[in-house]
Design a protein that fits this description.
Elements: E1 30-35, H1 39-51, E2 55-61, H2 65-77, E3 84-86, H3 89-93, E4 100-103, H4 110-119, E5 123-126, H5 134-147, E6 151-153, H6 162-171, E7 178-186, E8 192-194, H7 203-207, E9 216-218, H8 236-252, E10 259-265, E11 277-284, E12 287-294, E13 307-313, E14 316-320, E15 324-329, E16 336-339, H9 348-371, H10 381-400, E17 404-407, E18 412-413, H11 417-421
Parallel strand pairs: 1-2, 1-4, 2-3, 4-5, 5-6, 7-12
Antiparallel strand pairs: 7-13, 8-9, 10-11, 10-17, 11-12, 13-14, 14-15, 15-16, 17-18
């Protein structure tokens, strides 16, 4: 029997993690820079850092002048002083008094931006995935450990109540032994079109350590859509699905997988370098965890379950979405819902809850910076590196068309020389890969 009163509410509790910080005077606020002022860096990171009232946004940096000016205008519109603007992140890092940086650049730049921030003693709010390849992640961990700076990685779903509720339910034995897990995203993806590089865009620097690629955008936009280019991003699973892999690891206390196999390909969106369908099997010490995505518009018979995680237990199956979860008893019977499994940001209450979650991440980051301690940080670099590596192994398994056996002690591949060569990609001159064996 599933107890319907096990948890009274499955909705996101917007204020449940709110720390009662005082309103800081301008000279007491943390001096924060934003590196990468695209959509996410501006509308989400910059916006919610301001709302948190813990930060003085003193600098912005981007290779896109239009995006940079747009972000600066939003700082001023919020009633704050116009920040200094930079096209060179190295120059921005040398800004006197700078204490922290939020890095929201494309994935292929994360390692260099992060390691240089560590060398300057800056605290870092970092986008996921933390690195493009495995060895970058190891070099980033080394830099972080040497510096001892505070790092918060952007996994907002970890600040919702869903994970802790599902974990508590599973740990109680209500679902029985978890025998298998399945995560999936079925969602359309844009068709990319090559366009002329705007004069306001330094695309050479944008490409950075990655190969110089075509300038691709959505058909009705001029800003780059780099997520469809494999040299910049490893696709849907690494960009979006990584949140659900991170959730699974948290709920079930999983480390790196032992083995990873993947099959997939492209049947519709040939404008992208990444597969438009992908199926992955991870083996976590005998527990099979499956990932599946389709980006060409597939919908399941019940679209409410297009995006989320199934935990298959002996006594019950649990489906966890972004703002709620549902329990299906083994052998039939009515399911029990805790909140809504479908997240709809258009609904004011749900949009406000997500916004509060973003603010809570920055509040926690600010608290860590003031204490100069990672002790209270939810999304540590250590855990983010494990999740990032997990999804990178999946992409590697797809590329080499072979199941990979992971050596946890070295993070190498035991059974495939081709995959071993992909652990550290060659950087474009004059950039140098930060990993030293």
């Amino acid at each position: 029997m599933i107890r319907r009163d096990f948890i009274k509410s499955g909705t996101i509790a917007a204020g449940s993690l709110m720390t009662p910080f005082p309103l800081w005077a301008e000279d007491k606020k943390i001096k924060l820079a934003i590196l990468g002022t695209g959509w996410w860096g501006t509308d989400y990171l910059l916006g919610h850092a301001i709302i948190s009232k813990q930060f003085d946004i003193v600098a912005l940096c981007d290779v896109n002048q239009v995006a940079l000016e747009n972000a600066a205008d939003k700082v001023v519109e919020s009633g704050n002083k116009r920040p200094q603007l930079f096209s060179s992140y190295q120059q921005m890092y040398d800004l006197p008094g700078l204490q922290a940086v939020a890095i929201a650049t494309p994935t292929h730049w994360h390692a260099l931006h992060f390691i240089d921030a560590c060398k300057k003693g800056l605290h870092v709010f970092l986008e996921k995935p933390i690195s493009y390849d495995i060895r970058e992640g190891q070099a980033m961990m080394d830099a972080h450990q040497k510096t001892g700076n505070v790092v918060q990685v952007d996994f907002p779903r970890m600040f919702a109540d869903i994970n802790s509720q599902v974990k508590e339910f599973i740990d109680s034995g209500e679902a029985g032994k978890i025998l298998q897990v399945q995560a999936n995203i079925n969602n359309p993806e844009a068709i990319l079109t090559e366009k002329e590089i705007p004069t306001t865009m330094d695309f050479e620097t944008f490409c950075g350590p990655a190969p110089r690629k075509k300038y691709l955008c959505n058909h009705n936009e001029q800003k780059p859509n780099w997520r469809g280019q494999h040299d910049f991003s490893r696709g849907i699973m690494a960009d979006w699905g990584i949140h659900y892999i991170h959730n699974i690891r948290d709920v079930l206390d999983l480390d790196l997988p032992d083995r990873v196999g993947a099959v997939g390909g492209t049947v519709k969106n040939f404008s992208s370098d990444n597969p438009d369908y992908l199926d992955v099997r991870f083996d976590f010490n005998g527990l099979p965890v499956f990932w599946s995505h389709k980006s060409w518009g597939f919908t399941s018979p019940n679209p409410d379950y297009n995006i989320g995680i199934y935990y298959y237990g002996e006594k019950a199956t649990i489906f966890a979405g972004d703002s709620g979860w549902e329990v299906f008893p083994a052998g039939g019977g009515d399911s029990v819902k805790y909140g809504s499994v479908v997240f709809n940001p258009v609904v004011p209450a749900e949009g406000d809850s997500y916004s509060q979650i973003m603010v809570n991440m920055f509040l926690e980051f600010a608290d860590g910076v003031r204490k100069k301690s990672n002790e209270g940080i939810t999304n540590t670099l250590e855990e983010a590196q494990i999740t990032t590596s997990t999804v990178i192994y999946a992409d590697m398994a797809f590329r080499v068309k072979s199941e990979l056996s992971i050596d946890r002690s070295t993070m190498g591949i035991d059974n495939n020389k081709e995959a071993m060569s992909l652990l550290k990609r060659a950087y474009r001159s004059p950039y140098r890969h930060p990993y030293v064996s």
